[in-house]
């Protein structure tokens, strides 16, 4: 092209072109980015669409710069954040989009009064929303073949990297797969965060003045889609405005009611959407206990352990109590990896039990019915039983569940209770496949067995082949897991016997005072009522156990602990998280008991990590064990 014509065209574009920004469609196409799967492209398009519908351009202009931090610097190949500064362009006309920059200086140099300054060699990672008619054929084909979600009627995002050459020419390239991941996490996070920006007092409502926002910093967890990461992996994204603002510097004159922040950003999240997602994951704000959709919850940026409905609650909670435990929680979060069991081949993280059960093909089957809420109309202990063992285990195949039969490998050994160190050993001697999730249900009987054989150090009756009486306080769902408890009998390997007395208010009255032999060597007696009321009618136990007991949550523990103190019988407790252990120990000390067996991770905890509604702390059924009078 002739040089003068080119200049003319440039001026023409300047004047009548697409307004602020760099214009639409660049000819790049995500399908040709190496390492980006079609499924991830779909996720990027749906994240773009979700953000588009929150309409950030209504309030945000290019001069409103945001600082972004996605995960750790070391997560990225350059060992630094790829594009740590972002702005929204097009709010005053022209194509709506997002520009992301490698530095704040780049952003400032490039941000002109009306449009983007042509600064040579500045790279801009862009998302530009473009009408279909202006989209290059390659992108049209991609949208059709992958049936990608549109952001609005006839609007699709184009992701590319733009750069002016030293001659002022505009060049585009495809983003790298890493850059696409970066922009994805930003899209997800900013959609949640930007509605929380509060309009500042100065400059407000004066004509022609740009709205200014109060300093802001927030961290949200974004879940990588399955296509780019292991299931359930989260990345913390911190967004601040203006860049460099820190949390402590925030000053807040008025405190609006937290409910304000419960409103979804726009009408985007209609009741319809919530209903259409049958496994909506609800979290609970640690401060106000309000339920908040998982996608819209925030967590403490330092420890990442506690959930909030919004920044107001976070600030209040920080002042009132979180400040003193944030460091402790951070340490607990750092044990995530240590607690993860890597020997199993089934999903070991769940957000919703129904969903997890679906994923392993066991939803609403056999004993598994007790693990989700689908059968909650049946009281504990009254779930209709299956007659065949394999049906009790949800129709698992041979080699996937423990047959109600002796341990074959132990036939020719001396009859002694089998001592186990953990799941790996158990699965091996039972010849179970590591794809079998039965550990989730066996956690209850095997935790008891572990306590009986390993944790009671002095005069261990069971190891010596004698009878052991166990008082099992507060059973609930366990009442429907009797086929799993039968496994304890086989582990005894022809020696000793166990009498378990399950005592609790959840024992159904028609089953109270009944005995079920769940195997020749294991008997289970059921007693309805509170332990403190019933203990005197029962024979003295050798050990008391309470699983997932939530000592801090129930006032009735006071009476039970008094009995344990009076009798001096060893008692073991399991709790789901370390935080619950810490609080539980306080309850025990308060009752005058001494913790003689310190808190330890339970080798027979459920391998599936779940989460408490208001916390991200590592949480497992029977996760940790500790004891008194041992
Ligand atoms: Zn709240
Ligand atoms: Zn914290
Ligand atoms: Zn269910």
TrEMBL record:
* InterPro entries in the record: Mss51-like_C (IPR046824), Znf_MYND (IPR002893)
One MF term in GO for this entry? zinc ion binding
From the Swiss-Prot or TrEMBL record, give the protein name. Answer: MYND-type domain-containing protein
A Pfam entry, by short name: MSS51_C
Assigned keywords, A-Z: Metal-binding, Zinc, Zinc-finger
Q: Does the keyword Thylakoid apply?
A: no
The residue stretches assigned to a coiled coil in this entry are: none
MYND-type domain residues are: 285-326
């Amino acid at each position: 092209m002739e040089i003068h014509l080119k200049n003319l065209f440039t001026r023409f574009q300047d004047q009548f072109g697409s307004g602020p920004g760099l214009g639409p469609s660049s000819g790049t196409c995500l399908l040709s980015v190496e390492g980006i799967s079609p499924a991830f492209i779909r996720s990027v398009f749906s994240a773009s669409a979700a953000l588009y519908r929150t309409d950030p351009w209504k309030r945000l202009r290019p001069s409103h710069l945001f600082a972004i931090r996605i995960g750790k610097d070391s997560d990225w190949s350059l060992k630094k954040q790829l594009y740590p500064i972002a702005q929204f362009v097009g709010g005053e006309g022209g194509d709506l989009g997002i520009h992301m920059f490698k530095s704040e200086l780049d952003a400032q140099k490039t941000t002109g009064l009306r449009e983007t300054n042509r600064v040579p060699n500045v790279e801009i990672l862009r998302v530009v929303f473009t009408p279909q008619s202006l989209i290059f054929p390659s992108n049209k084909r991609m949208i059709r073949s992958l049936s990608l979600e549109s952001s609005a009627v006839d609007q699709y995002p184009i992701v590319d990297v733009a750069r002016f050459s030293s001659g002022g020419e505009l060049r585009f390239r495809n983003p790298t797969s890493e850059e696409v991941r970066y922009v994805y996490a930003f899209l997800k996070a900013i959609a949640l965060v930007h509605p929380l920006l509060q309009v500042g007092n100065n400059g407000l409502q004066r004509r022609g003045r740009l709205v200014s926002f109060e300093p802001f910093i927030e961290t949200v967890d974004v879940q990588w889609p399955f296509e780019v990461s292991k299931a359930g992996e989260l990345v913390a994204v911190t967004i601040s405005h203006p860049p460099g603002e820190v949390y402590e510097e925030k000053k807040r004159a008025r405190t609006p009611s937290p409910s304000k922040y419960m409103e979804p950003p726009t009408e985007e999240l209609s009741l319809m959407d919530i209903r259409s997602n049958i496994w909506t994951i609800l979290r609970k704000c640690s401060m106000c206990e309000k339920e908040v959709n998982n996608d819209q919850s925030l967590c403490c940026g330092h420890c990442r352990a506690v959930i909030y409905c919004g920044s107001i609650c976070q600030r209040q909670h920080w002042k009132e109590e979180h400040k003193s435990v944030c460091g402790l929680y951070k340490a607990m979060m750092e044990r995530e990896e240590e607690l993860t069991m890597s020997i199993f081949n089934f999903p070991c993280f769940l957000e919703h039990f129904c969903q997890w059960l679906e994923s392993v093909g066991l939803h609403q089957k056999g004993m598994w019915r007790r693990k989700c809420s689908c059968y909650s109309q049946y009281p504990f202990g009254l779930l209709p039983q299956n007659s065949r063992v394999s049906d009790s285990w949800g129709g698992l195949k041979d080699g996937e569940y423990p047959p109600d039969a002796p341990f074959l490998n132990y036939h020719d050994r001396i009859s002694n209770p089998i001592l186990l160190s953990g799941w790996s050993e158990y699965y091996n001697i039972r010849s179970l496949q590591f794809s079998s999730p039965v550990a989730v249900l066996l956690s209850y009987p095997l935790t008891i067995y572990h306590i009986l054989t390993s944790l009671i150090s002095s005069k261990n009756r069971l190891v010596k082949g004698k009878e052991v009486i166990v008082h099992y306080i507060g059973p609930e769902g366990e009442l429907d897991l009797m086929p799993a408890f039968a496994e304890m009998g086989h582990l005894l390997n022809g020696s000793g016997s166990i009498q378990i007395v399950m005592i609790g208010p959840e024992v159904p009255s028609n089953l109270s005072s009944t005995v079920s032999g769940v195997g020749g060597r294991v008997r289970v007696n059921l007693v309805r009522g509170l332990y403190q009321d019933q203990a005197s009618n029962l024979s003295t136990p050798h050990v008391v156990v309470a699983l997932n007991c939530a000592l801090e949550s129930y006032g009735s523990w006071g009476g039970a602990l008094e009995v344990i103190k009076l009798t001096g019988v060893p008692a073991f407790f399991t709790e789901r998280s370390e935080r619950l252990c810490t609080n539980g120990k306080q309850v025990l000390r308060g009752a005058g008991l001494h913790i003689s067996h310190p808190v330890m991770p339970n080798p027979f905890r459920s391998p599936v990590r779940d989460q408490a509604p208001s916390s991200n702390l590592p949480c497992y059924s029977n996760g940790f064990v500790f004891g008194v009078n041992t």
